[in-house]
Amino acid sequence: MTTPGVDQERIARAVREILLAIGEDPARPGLARTPQRVAEAYAEFFGGLAVDPLVHLADTVPLDAGIRRAKGGADADTPTTSDAVVLRDLDFRSVCEHHLLPFVGTAHVAYLPGDRVVGLGRIPAVVDTLASRPQLQERLAEEIADALETGLEPKGVLVVLDAQHRCVTTRGSRQERSSTVTIASRGALAEPAARAEIVALIGARRD
Which tens digits make up the pLDDT trace of 89-141? Predict the structure, then answer.
C-alpha cells in the first residue's frame, strides 16, 4: 500500500545500508525481505505526517443549548465537569524521534463542549493521526489538545497520555516497568480543581 509522503523504496535502500553497516548480509534468506518489511512498517508508523488531524473534526453536531438549560438555574450556561465528554483507555502507538523506537500506551481525552460535539470515533482518529509521526510524548499531548481546541472550540480540553518508551525499556538503564505520564489542558479544564476532578474520573475503576 502506498502512503502519501512516504518513499518506501528510499527507506528500503536505507535499511539495506544499515544491515551492511552492522556487518550483516541483506541478501541472506532471513533478511532478504526485511528492507521492504521495514519500509511498509514505517509507512504505517509515519502516515500521519500527510494527514491534517482537523479533517477528523470537520463533521460536527450542534449541541442544543436547551439541553444545558434544562438542568435549570442561572448558571446553566456555565460549563461544569458534569458536562464533560470523557474517552478513556484509547490505545495508541508512536515513534520517539530521538531513537526511532516505538512508545506505546493509553490516551485519555476529555473536553467540555461549546456549541458543537463530534462523533466519539473521531477523537481516536485525531490521536492516531498525530501519533503517526516522529514524536515526543510531551508534544503529542499538546498537539492533541490544540487540535481539539481548534476543531471544536470547546470550553476546555484535557489530554492524559501514559506510555512505555522502548528507548527506556530496552536500552540504556532498561527500566522495564517504567512509564511516562504527560498532561495537556486548555480552558476551563486547565483550572486545577476541574482538572483534578476529570483526572479522578479517568482513574476510577470500572465495576
Answer: 999 999 999 999 999 999 999 999 999 999 999 999 999 999 999 999 999 99
Q: The pTM is what?
A: 0.88
Half-sphere CA count of 166, side-chain side, radius 13 A = 11
Would residue 197 show up in a list of annotated catalytic residues for this protein? no
**Catalytic-labelled residue, pool 8, 56, 137, 197:** 137
Active-site residue 108, yes or no? no
Q: Which of 8, 96, 108, 142 is labelled catalytic?
A: 96
| 98 catalytic residue (yes or no) | yes
Neighbouring CB atoms inside 10 A of 9's CB total 10
Strand blocks (E) in 49-155: 60-62, 85-96, 102-112, 116-118, 134-135
